[in-house]
Amino acid sequence: MTYEHTQRELLAALLALHEAEAAGFDWTLETIYRLGPPQSKEEVVVTPFFYDDSDYEMFLRRHPLVGYPLVNLMYEQLHIEAARDYFVPSPGFAREQVVHCAWGDRTRQLLVDNGVPAEHVRLTGQPRFDIYHRPELLVDRATMAARYGLEPSKRWILVPYNFNAAYMDDQRVAELAARGFRMPPGFRESSAEARDVFTPMVRRLSDEHPDTEFILRMHPSGVEAESLYAGESRERSNLHVIAELDIANWITQAELVIVWTSSSGLEGMVAETPVISLEPQPYSDTFDYDVQRILPTTSSPSDVEDLVRGDGAHPEGNWNLFDEWFCHRGGETAKRLASVFSDVAANQEFAVTDLPPRPLAKRARGRLNDVAERWPTSAHGLLNSAGWSPAPANLDVNESALRAAVAGPSSEPLLEVLW
């Protein structure tokens, strides 16, 4: 099994591997950037994404794939309209030879309507939702408080920041467009405008409620770095800028989650933590995005401030629309994934028969990146300036700790990695 972001995928991976182990599989866990050659003649390759044939050369080039089934967990299934070409598997290999795991009927239908064979689409549910049924995977409040300087007896309010688009430069926009993500007009500006409403609001709230701990949770990936907001913590002792730890830990400990376009709000609904979505300017209709249509959403910061003060009842989300996108939330997705792994392993029809086209230029770049990975860390700055980015390393954890975490399943053996 491979992963991209440990903070998004590791806990869900522990659950999936736990169930796979119970189903008779041995396993390895590697970053998708460093997937190695097969460990067995009977192997299922599991990736967090695979939408474009170029994903093979970029991520999977060290694995022969032919003769092995390839399963795409399809992380991030709810997109704005402009991103759907990026998300729908490209014609050829990605569409016809990969088994895709849909989290709900909306995604399943989208895939089938775009030419993915129905037998290559499996309805599994969102793997992360299982975490909220397994509290043993999460860090306790006292440990979190001690590490991050929070007062455990105070109430905690979580504000996940997700304004990455506001910091994207033209080069990044062009890279996304090349992959099918057509950045719509006003998209970056909308993100910047929302950020410029959220940050003053959070400052006001932290000043008005000194006995409440406010956690600005930075997105663990992308260009919106924690350092951009470091000054907020220096000026207010109850305002904490944190980019660490799986967000499920913060959601389960919070009394309220305040979001803008963030899927963490959906997780808050599953965790039964009150959630409010602030949409200070039109976004859902402008970009056709269902997250805000599912979450209880307001356009007024004063409505959010009233909730923090305790004025009025917490609004309900749209569970009917939620269930169209996410068909399962009962904690059994890991078992369904293990069943998918068993099925594709037992049926040769799901084994890859041919590799995608491998343009010479992309093959050459892949080989250069292989060479770059063997260079010492001290040389990485030079390599980056030349456009060759060494891939992220695998988890820096010994095998026995990882196997203990899967056997539990428990996060305890991996705490140093999870921080």
Report on the architecture of this protein.
By secondary structure, the protein is an alpha/beta fold. The protein has two domains: 187 residues, no CATH class; 180 residues, Glycogen Phosphorylase B (Rossmann fold), CATH 3.40.50. The protein is built from 20 helices and twelve strands. The chain has a six-stranded parallel sheet, sandwiched between helices. A four-stranded parallel sheet has the order 3-4-5-6, sandwiched between helices. The chain has a two-stranded parallel ribbon with strand order 1-2. α1 links the parallel β1 and β2. α1 crosses α16 and α10 crosses α11. 38% of the residues are buried.
Distance between the termini: 22 Å
Biggest sheet layout:
6 strands, parallel
Low-confidence parts: none
Tell me roughly what share of residues is in helical segments. Answer: 40-55%
Helical segment count: 20
Write the layout of secondary structure elements.
Elements: E1 2-3, H1 6-22, E2 30-31, E3 45-47, H2 54-60, E4 70-72, H3 84-87, H4 93-96, E5 99-102, H5 105-113, E6 121-123, H6 141-148, E7 155-160, H7 170-178, H8 187-208, E8 212-217, H9 230-235, E9 239-242, H10 247-253, E10 256-259, H11 264-271, E11 275-278, H12 284-287, H13 291-294, E12 297-298, H14 301-309, H15 319-325, H16 333-346, H17 360-373, H18 380-385, H19 399-407, H20 415-418
Parallel strand pairs: 1-2, 3-4, 4-5, 5-6, 7-8, 7-10, 8-9, 10-11, 11-12
